[in-house]
Specification:
This protein is α/β, with parallel strands linked by helices. It has helices at 21-27, 36-39, 63-68, 75-86, 119-136, 146-153, 159-162, 184-188, 196-211; strands at 47-48, 54-58, 94-98, 105-108, 111-114, 140-144, 166-171, 174-181. The protein is globular. Bound molecules: uracil and iron/sulfur cluster.
Length: 212
Amino acid sequence: MPAREPERPGAQRWVPPEGDVESLRSAAPGCRGCELWAGATQVVFSAGSPSARLVLVGEQPGDREDREGRPFVGPAGRVLDDALQVAGIDPADVYLTNAVKHFRFDERGNRRIHKKPGVVHIAACLPWLAAELGAVRPDVVVCLGATAGRAVLGRTVRITAERGEVLTRPGPDGDLRVLLTTHPSAVVRLRGRPEFEAAFAALVADLRRAAG
Ligand code: URA
Ligand code: SF4
């Protein structure tokens, strides 16, 4: 009897080895590494320059991103664009991606409500992010929120306690510098409240530190 293929849960078997960003991008729509592909419109891979010095990692695509197939094109993306601009970071020197590449949501009537990816989805999708970091080889990775922090650092993170510090993680070219900050969606939720300005300024300060 032939030996059964060992079960390989997660995205690894769909990730082309040694792939550059374009080959990763063309392979990603075929991924069946977890169940999230089934409910989503399409995979949302990355945006930005494959030779960027700065990689920004979000959580997962939202409703708009799922429909358009591009990361950070919704309200969180607008806040992020504004923050990058105020921080003086050239968008051409940024590579934008997410810890999880398919939109996870709950259906309420005809609305799709964002649902945080589980630890199992983060783990399943990690081979894509690892391959992206291997291909881009950035100087710094900024994790936007706790999901990205968990994916990149491989542990539970506490954004409020650890944000803005330059942390390190072993990377493809020696230590990779990693900085945690809030997810821009958390800033979006404060819009119209007195806390908005401070939250936005803190995001800008973290981005500036990462780029500096
Ligand atoms: N939030 C994210 O984390 N990623 C996106 O692409 C959009 C919103
Ligand atoms: Fe593959 Fe990630 Fe999509 Fe799951 S979320 S199917 S692991 S690309």
